[in-house]
Amino acid sequence: MRIRRQAQLWMETSMLRGASALLLAVGLATSAGAGPIDSASLALTLGTLPGASFVATNPTGNLTSASSFTFGGGAPFAGTVTAPVTGGTGISSIVFQIQSNPQGNFTGPSPAAVKAAMPITGVAAVRGFNITLLPVPLTLGSPVTVTAGNITVDIFVTAIGGSWTGGTAAVTGVPFTTTVYAPAYGTFTQMGTTTVTQMGATSYTAGGLLHVQLVAPLKVLTSLAASPVIPSFARLTVSYVPEPGQMAMALLGIAVLVPFGWSRRRRSD
Hints:
Blueprint: H1 2-31, E1 35-46, E2 49-55, E3 62-65, E4 68-71, E5 79-84, E6 93-98, E7 104-107, E8 115-116, E9 120-128, E10 131-140, E11 145-150, E12 155-161, E13 164-165, E14 168-182, E15 186-199, E16 201-205, E17 208-222, E18 229-240, H2 244-268
Antiparallel strand pairs: 1-2, 1-3, 1-18, 3-4, 4-7, 5-6, 6-9, 8-13, 9-10, 11-12, 12-17, 14-15, 16-17, 17-18
């Protein structure tokens, strides 16, 4: 009789455990996909110059896996940010205006290898002496080169863009000057070029991929002797959330397992 009772308990345990584990597995697996966008932001840095940040309004898109997601087209980042410039360069501020972007479809063999072009357009207006000295067209996140110039004030700018990546974005050929001491020669100045990089990132939770950070390089060449190359980067941060129904399924699996384990222990006692 006791053996039959133990066999019955074993069968009940196996069936309920299998069912709840299936609910848990399906819930966790699907919660990592088909997730809508909760929030998004765009940040632009221009070397040591002031940058700008924009928060998206009603962004759209979906996450289907850790290395496949979309960002909807439209004008989610539309807005204007004025960044003051100090240092007596004659430039008083840079006015950043973001306009629109097409839909971006991001895929790759791994999160760090995700890459795609999604041009976010706008204008960076260089201001000084209470006037706009030079409006520079912006194309962030796309391998596009734009050139702008103002003969009157002798300012010329070329901006070389690159695609979005979840890995490393690089701006090459950035000049540097450093002071070096060598016993045989004393102190002297060394000049050369270097590469400046920024990295994308992904953050995971128990429910799947939630936060995605993509970076895009922007190499800015200027006619200014003090700043011939300005290493610049755009950073797109998107937060995806799992579907509520999918997370509920995962939680249901856990809810079934916990009380059953407690009940089984009482019955076995």
